[in-house]
Specification:
Order of helices and strands: EEEEEEHHH
Strand content: 25-35%
Number of helices: 3
Number of strands: 6
Radius of gyration: 17 Å
């Protein structure tokens, strides 16, 4: 897996299909949270993992806090339930956000949005062909894949070129 990046690191808000906005806001109990998705930026990685970050919206300014409340991992390919990333402790708040995220993942519009953003990020990073050539010239078939998957290169990203 490569570095996880947000769609807005590659596109301006004007370049994104308004049907699939770049961020999602959700209301959980009496609080509002901002939900921002991050996607793998390695052009040869075939993972479809998404990290979903949740931030609290500050009441006084109606802007998101800089503190991340929870991060969940979700795989678009496997469709396993999202899981709380190890660095965050399970709590009533994270349980509530997880339930809300699970509900969002049942909505076809949200899944379409994630797929659209995943492909936009992959499209933008694949435009950089220097990365692909540098990897294919330096990595042996039996070495660990530079995408970080832990697999051998021949079983991971070799066929992506």
């Amino acid at each position: 897996m490569g570095t996880m990046r947000n769609l807005l690191e590659f596109y301006t808000e004007d370049e994104i299909n308004p049907e699939y906005p770049s961020i999602a806001g959700i209301l959980e109990a009496q609080d509002t949270y901002l939900c921002i998705e991050y996607f793998c930026d390695n052009p040869c990685c075939t993972c479809r993992e998404i990290l979903v970050y949740f931030f609290a919206i500050l009441e006084d300014s109606r802007k998101p806090s800089s503190e991340v409340i929870a991060v969940f991992a979700y795989d678009l390919k496997k469709h396993n339930p999202p899981t709380l990333v190890k660095d965050f402790k399970k709590s009533k708040l994270t349980d509530g956000l997880l339930k809300r995220l699970q509900a969002m993942l049942q909505e076809q519009g949200y899944i379409d949005r994630l797929k659209n953003h995943y492909h936009l990020v992959k499209e933008r990073v694949s435009e950089c062909s220097d990365f692909e050539h540098a990897i294919s010239d330096k990595v042996g078939r039996n070495e660990l894949c530079p995408c970080g998957s832990g697999k051998k290169y021949k079983k991971c990203c070799l066929d992506s070129f």
